[in-house]
Amino acid sequence: MSLSGPAARFAFSTTLALLAALPCPAADSDAQKHTLHYKFEIGDVLRYDIEHDALIRSTMEGSTQKAQTRSQSVKAWKVIDVLPNGEIELQHVVEELQMTNRLPERAEVSYDSTKDKAPPAGFEDAAKAVGVPLSHIRLTPWGKVVNHEVKHHQPAADPYAPLAVLLPEKPVAVGDSWDEPVEIKVNLSEGGTKAVTTRRHFRLASVKNGVAVIESAFQTLSPVTPEMEGQLAQRYIEGTVRFDIKRGRVLSQEYDVDKRVLGFAGPASSMHYRMHMTERLQDGAAVASRPSKTDEK
């Protein structure tokens, strides 16, 4: 039996009403907006295990040399204060360091802060930087540095190294991107320096089970010569950041560099820089104190 006229219109309207009453399917996570902000409390201590391997092979005037460094360290962020406006004050400390250097025409040299009472030659500055406050940092909830006060000067410290992963100030959906502009000064062979416009580019790649996966890449925005590019080689990082949205903290970072530069020190010169770095939040991190070495045995 078919319906027509008023009966058909009644049946159609009833169907629409029933459909309207059904629960809507969950929105695709790609279309949702996510707030990626740091969430710390006073007294939190976040410890990260860091592994860093770097290899540089350079050729000049027909001679090739290779230098390699490998390090493992424990970095701690100690939250000193959280201000009413949400800004976070924290202290940066390197609590442990194991490091090995292989330099041209030299024997391999290693240092372990957990075992060595005195560092070998060449590791004195690194040893002095272990277990002491390196800097006090004030961040916005999205990781913009408001103030950076150096407490312990390190001669080999990179002034352009990021202090924190920059997050988007406003909520973002999967596929959205944001940038952190960085102006870097490089030395010129004829004397003086030149500013290079660069940026760290970020993109929200996915969100699953409350963890945001962020892609990151370093990019130069102004023209560079091989000489300038040689000084920037170590900065061409590409990698991913895993961020716990609910707890508001970085879970891990993983970066790689594989950069070749021809003519960095003259027409017949070349450089190949490779680097791999991982940083992972320790299990049970965000505790107020660290056990002594005696307690850990």
From TrEMBL:
Signal peptide, first to last residue: 1-26
Protein origin, superkingdom: Bacteria
Keyword list, A-Z: Signal
Descriptive protein name: SLA1 homology domain-containing protein
